[in-house]
Design brief:
binds 4-nitrophenyl phosphate; 41% helix; alpha/beta; Rossmann fold
């Protein structure tokens, strides 16, 4: 199994959106039996909480399942458990380095560093723009799936 973890500050806006979107792409590519998808926060603020209403409504608008999205916090052991640990912004990356004790490890990177944007995913908790977040995360997730397919020589069988 290839295990993917998306990480943001609260695990109620961006990383659950990435989890739902990426799981949808994985299922549509028939890779469900090869790739697992999860998300977590660097903070403990929203453990056990459902996603933000803005994240739920935009996912529903695009007919992406929101099943099983529940707030959790990344822990040190997750470094061993996951093959790709993907932060939404640079402060997430700094916090993931601290929590895992693995600074600059290549399995930890920022989502949009896989695209030509090379920037943070803006936090809709503050911007209120869930559409912008959706568009950027969707672009980043497509690049991520390509990267994983290449790195693991996956086909659709
Ligand atoms: P997220 O956004 O990191 O994309 O889930 C936030 C969610 C909650 C808070 C901040 C950012 N908060 O302050 O509770």
């Amino acid at each position: 199994m290839i295990n993917v973890l998306f990480v943001c500050l609260g695990n109620i806006c961006r990383s659950p959106m990435a989890e739902a979107l990426f799981r949808d792409m994985v299922e549509k590519e028939n890779l469900k039996n090869k790739i697992t998808v999860a998300s977590a926060a660097t903070s403990s603020w929203h453990i056990g909480d459902p996603p933000h209403s803005g994240t739920l409504s935009i996912l529903k608008q695009y007919s992406i399942s929101t099943e099983g999205l529940i707030g959790s916090q990344i822990k040190k052991d997750d470094f061993e458990k996951y093959d790709y640990i993907i932060g939404m912004d640079q402060s997430n990356i700094t916090n993931i380095y601290k929590i895992t004790g693995q600074p600059n490890h290549p399995k930890i990177f920022r989502l949009l560093d896989l695209t030509e944007d090379n920037k943070d995913v803006p936090d809709p908790y503050y911007t209120g723009d869930f559409q912008e977040t959706y568009d950027l995360i969707s672009k980043g997730c497509r690049s991520l799936l390509k990267k994983i397919v290449i790195e693991h020589h996956l086909n659709n069988n």
